[in-house]
Amino acid sequence: MEIIPSSRFRGTWKYIRAFAFISLILAIFFTVALAGLIAFAKLKGAPPLAVPQTTIFYADDGSKIGESDNGQTRYWVDLDDISPYIIQATIAVEDRKFYEHHGFDIKRIIGAVVANIKAMAKVQGASTITQQYARNLFLNHDKTWTRKLQEALYTIRLEANYSKKQILEGYLNTIYYGHGAYGIEAAAHYYFGKPAKQLTLSEAAMLAGIPKGPYYYSPFINEKRAKARQKTVLSSMAEAGYISEKEAEQAYQTPLVYSRHHEAGKKKIAPYFQDVVKYALRNQLGLDERVIETGGLRVYTSLDPEMQEIAERKIHDIIDPHSDIQVAFVAMDPRSGEVKALIGGRDYDKSPFNRAVQAERQPGSTFKPFLYYAAIQQGFTPSTQMRSELTTFTFDNGKETYTPHNYNNYYANDEITLAQAIALSDNVFAVKTHLFIGEDKLVETAKKLGITSKLKAVPSLALGTLPVKVIDMVGAYSALANNGKKTEPVFIKKVVNHKGETIYEYKPSSKQVLDPDAAYVTVQLMTGMFDPKLNDYTTVTGQSIRKQITRPYAGKSGTTKTDSWMIGFAPQLVAGVWTGYDRGETMDKVAEKQYAKQIWVQFMEESLQGKPKKQFKPTKGVVGVYVDPDNGKLATKSCPVKRLTYYIAGTEPTDYCTDHLHHKKSKNKEEKKNWFEKWFPWF
């Protein structure tokens, strides 16, 4: 009996045949494509190793200030001369199936894609050792499909022309381990002062973890993160069967002894500045470390070599060489934001920690200009008067109290003007102002000016009790000097790649963050620290350096038990200095408290020598009138002291001073005596 297939079965069979035919065609296509790629790889031969090109850093005047020193820290050693531990650690953490795949780990790629899709971000990579080695042969690390295709072709060429041993040897000799050290031999010498062949399990696990993030996982940058990464590597080695769990734990607990006699070339000119430039290249321009170190870049910076040399020399000459006190210094052009000089410590070789951009310290009274700007915005004027006397402020229905103290517990025990308060750095007046206008106003103003540190709306904030960064403070003062226009600190003006193409160029920009008239009035208030006409119950805070000044400046000093600051500016240059001890020791010596002011004034005077002595140009909405500085009222012919003071138009005083009519006032400004003159009239 003949069985006739049903029409349904015939239809299914047709689809099966079509599927089989298409599969066969695709298989043939992929086979031919794969054979073509292999033939192409064989025809092209082994890819040559690209010769790294030195990246050069230039100052604003075109002079060279530094370069990457990869030539001094690159070695090539045979795989047999590399510790088995580093080989095992690298394979375990980077590419566990290195000896099984042919350049690409398909399962790992699929797993990474799934993980990244679930996280909606790149949380897992799948590059094999061969792919990473191929990537190292490129100076161009652009994240484009063209570059990825070239990288894939290089990967195939490597697998087709090199043995696994040769690929691994090339990888270990070219991978970047941070701090200018390329290859495992250079890294072994740099971190541990020994050849790669002598690396222990603990040392090898530490080094194998670094290439994933050479800056992030460097034990010299953050040892806690580096140790966590080392533990990951050791766990991977145990999972791969290279070592036991016990050996992994013992290696993790073994103390590491690092070499401090590094073979990498030391930067000589502005090393702290160069570190900030490299940070900007990584985090602002998005360049990876290999491109920065060996990409043949030409980086044109904002550094003024002459100003940098002056700042370094002043710090060296002024601070006692036997003192452990530290320093941070930043100088900027307030109009462009270009950083002209930067110092993050007294000795880069001993401490590369950059106190100018990384440390946060209490700014003390250097925070007060922000407060008084906010007060002017709320209706205060330079003539606003309040009493300066020991005062205890009560909060929270009497549950909390706060008693600010003036320097050396001196008080006027009388009314003083706002202009006097900032010039004399009266703390009681500052806290009263802070509470009167609302504590949130100072926080808002500081944030507008670019203070990035966490700030709390508390009474003591008026006295600068919460820590901030030097770079932020100098940037904020730049905005005041620039009539309220803020520019971000600029370190890099242009970057040119190894082909001569400009890949980045800074375009000047600024943002009006403050009212220009209120900013100008604040600047004029800040000139008071150098003006003895404002002397009252004590002298102005700039008295000790006033005789060294030859041009108009505005500024403010600040002192806490552990920190000393001086920040100030002329119209064309702003500079800030912090001095103190790293561990927060108190500064008890009189000379230590003068370091910041002396460094600042000597730097400013020498840097601006021969340049125009510019005045602070009034904005359109302000008016200047002569007042009696003792009471803030309009001065008359009878007033023995008159001072030109600026106000937002319409807020200037209208009442005339009557204190000196008919000689009713027994002591005028010039007759006032300091406390020591009252006790020692012969002084």
TrEMBL record:
SUPFAM superfamilies noted in UniProt: beta-lactamase/transpeptidase-like, Lysozyme-like
Subcellular location: Cell membrane
Domain Glycosyl transferase family: 62-237
UniProt entry keywords in alphabetical sequence: Carboxypeptidase, Cell membrane, Cell shape, Cell wall biogenesis/degradation, Glycosyltransferase, Hydrolase, Membrane, Multifunctional enzyme, Peptidoglycan synthesis, Protease, Transferase, Transmembrane, Transmembrane helix
Domain annotation Penicillin-binding protein transpeptidase: ranges: 328-582
GO MF term set: penicillin binding; peptidoglycan glycosyltransferase activity; serine-type D-Ala-D-Ala carboxypeptidase activity
GO cellular component: outer membrane-bounded periplasmic space; plasma membrane
Parts of the chain that traverse the membrane: 18-41
GO biological processes: cell wall organization; peptidoglycan biosynthetic process; proteolysis; regulation of cell shape
Highest taxon above the source species: Bacteria
Entry-linked Pfam families: Transgly, Transpeptidase
Catalysed conversion reaction: [GlcNAc-(1->4)-Mur2Ac(oyl-L-Ala-gamma-D-Glu-L-Lys-D-Ala-D-Ala)](n)-di-trans,octa-cis-undecaprenyl diphosphate + beta-D-GlcNAc-(1->4)-Mur2Ac(oyl-L-Ala-gamma-D-Glu-L-Lys-D-Ala-D-Ala)-di-trans,octa-cis-undecaprenyl diphosphate = [GlcNAc-(1->4)-Mur2Ac(oyl-L-Ala-gamma-D-Glu-L-Lys-D-Ala-D-Ala)](n+1)-di-trans,octa-cis-undecaprenyl diphosphate + di-trans,octa-cis-undecaprenyl diphosphate + H(+); Preferential cleavage: (Ac)2-L-Lys-D-Ala-|-D-Ala. Also transpeptidation of peptidyl-alanyl moieties that are N-acyl substituents of D-alanine
Protein family: In the N-terminal section; belongs to the glycosyltransferase 51 family. In the C-terminal section; belongs to the transpeptidase family.
Classification via PANTHER family: BINDING PROTEIN TRANSPEPTIDASE, PUTATIVE-RELATED (PTHR32282), PENICILLIN-BINDING PROTEIN 1B (PTHR32282:SF11)
Designated name of the protein: Monofunctional biosynthetic peptidoglycan transglycosylase
Source organism (scientific name): Parageobacillus thermoglucosidasius
